[in-house]
Amino acid sequence: MPVIVKGGTVVNSDQSFQADVYCEDGIIQAVGPDMDAPSGVEVFDAGGCYVMPGGIDPHTHMELPFKEKTVPEDFFSGTTAGVVGGTTMIIDFVIPGPEEDVLEKFHKCQSLAEKSCVDYSFHVAITWWNDSVHEAMGVLCRDHGVNSFNHFLAYKNSIMANDEVLVNSFTRARELGALCTVHAESGELVDYYQKKIFDSGITGPEGYPQSRPPQVEGEAANRAIRFAQTIDVPLYLVNNSCSHSMNEIARARREGQRVFGEVLTSHLILDDSVYLNPDFEFAAAHVTSPPFRPKANLEALWRGLQSGDIQTTASDHRYFSAEQKSIGKEDFRKIPEGTAGIEDRMNVLWTHGVNTGRLTANEFVAVTSANTAKIFNIYPRKGLVAEGSDADLSILDPQASQTISGKNHHQNVGFNVFEGMELKGVNVATVSNGNIVYKEGDIRTERDAGRYIDRPCFASYYSAIEKRSSATGPTSVDRS
Ligand SMILES: [Zn+2]
């Protein structure tokens, strides 16, 4: 059924204005004042509300395998929780293990994700290298709408991309016009310090942040940035948690390099004191990589968002149950890493970002949706409320309040890291693919309603990179 959102203030990343929004066939057909609402059209009264592009969460991990089972949160329950919080698209991760066939893993993940209720896409991790991986990257870009490849610099002896993999994969991405993304923590240093801390007798979750201090993130961020600079490929750093990595991004950007950064809402709010809690279950529930950091980093991350050095926000929604976490009761190194947050990302950011004056409403749209759409080359299809864009909307009532609680959230998750937080300004309705899928507590999401979204290669920043590299290419001297 067509939908008219009436009487709200449309908020895009560049401007805000009073307008109604008419959606039909999954597309925004018109944006303008005082539209008529003919019969057969569902009307949502958005008086006093902000009508914004639906959120894009560029970093989620639904339905992860764990010890031959999967985590409780699947693509349908996870995207439904996202819808309640105003998120209408996710970019999840395909993570083939070492030697695992990349295309096969991609197709496996794609079929799991079909149950999503909103649109979705995938970063594909490059964890090892041979000719078949080189070939698979080409097929993914050409035939499957993948334009970003992730590299874990952590997780030695598992999915870590070593320097040789980085050179090969970054070079291949450059040929294909794809974006390289990186999880920056030095696997070598983490491996060394995990053993050292554990052997010193610290076996509880407090050992976790001590074994991967901010310097290991700074080192890996700098290494990835210098590799990208040398190979001349654009780079996106996921889940920056501290000033160490952020300063590397800022420096690179000052030097004219195309480097983008993401921050998780949880890293903007929580600090490392959570690991000192005497209750194992509580402390272990916060074990995630990178870990929560000493408090001084939080304000630095906010300043990164404000200054534009960091462009996007994500949840890194990745949940393991208390039972699954308890496997590391005697050894913090075995605690599965992850925290949830897809449902709360936007509401928490509004309360702590917009209400505190750190971000304008337009900047909020930029860091929750528009910037992600631009960086991953799906703008203005996504990330904009305008005629012709996908009809994905988050409708936020700045006067509505709510207390976050694991008791009534919609994530299939037993622990909420934002438990007890008072929100002012809450997503009250969500439109996805032209349908009202959430309205003031009424959830109408449908399994399989989400579509796989192709993301073309050669985003606009590539033409700038190409112009600059043709001016600075290798030279030879003719001595004949
Ligand atoms: Zn992640």
Short description:
It contains 15 helices and 21 strands. The chain is of the alpha/beta class. It has a single domain, classed as TIM Barrel (Alpha-Beta Barrel), CATH 3.20.20.140.
Question: What is this structure's SSE topology?
Answer:
Blueprint: E1 3-6, E2 9-11, E3 16-18, E4 20-24, E5 27-32, E6 42-45, E7 50-53, E8 55-60, E9 65-66, E10 69-70, H1 75-84, E11 87-94, H2 102-113, E12 119-125, H3 131-143, E13 148-152, H4 163-176, E14 179-183, H5 187-199, H6 207-211, H7 214-231, E15 235-237, H8 243-254, E16 259-264, H9 265-269, H10 280-285, H11 296-307, E17 312-314, H12 322-325, H13 345-354, H14 361-375, E18 393-403, E19 422-432, E20 435-439, E21 442-443, H15 460-471
Parallel strand pairs: 1-6, 2-7, 8-11, 11-12, 12-13, 13-14, 14-15, 15-16, 16-17
Antiparallel strand pairs: 1-4, 2-3, 4-5, 7-18, 9-10, 18-19, 19-20, 20-21
The protein binds zinc ion.
Zinc ion (ZN) binds next to loops.
Describe this entry's structure for a reader.
There is one protein chain. With 480 residues, the chain is of the alpha/beta class. The chain has a single domain, classed as TIM Barrel (Alpha-Beta Barrel), CATH 3.20.20.140. Helices cover 34% and strands 22% of the residues. The longest helix is centred in the middle third of the chain and has 18 residues, at 214-231. The protein starts with a strand and ends in a 9-residue tail after the last helix. The model has no long low-confidence stretch (mean pLDDT 97). Zinc ion binds at residues 59, 61, 316, 318.
